[in-house]
Amino acid sequence: MTILPKLEPIMALFLDFDGTLAELAPRPEDVRVSPEMISALGRVQSQLSGAVAVVSGRPIEQIDRFLSPLHLPAAGLHGLEHRLVPNAGIERDQPSPDIAALKNLLNTSDLVKRGAFIEDKGPAVAVHYRSVPELEADVLATMSEAVKALPALHLVHGKMVVEAKPFTSDKGFAVRTFMKNGTFAGRLPVFVGDDVTDEDGIAAAQELGGIGIKVGEGDTCARHRLENVAAVNEWLAAFELVSES
Question: Which residues are catalytic?
Answer without folding.
Answer: 16
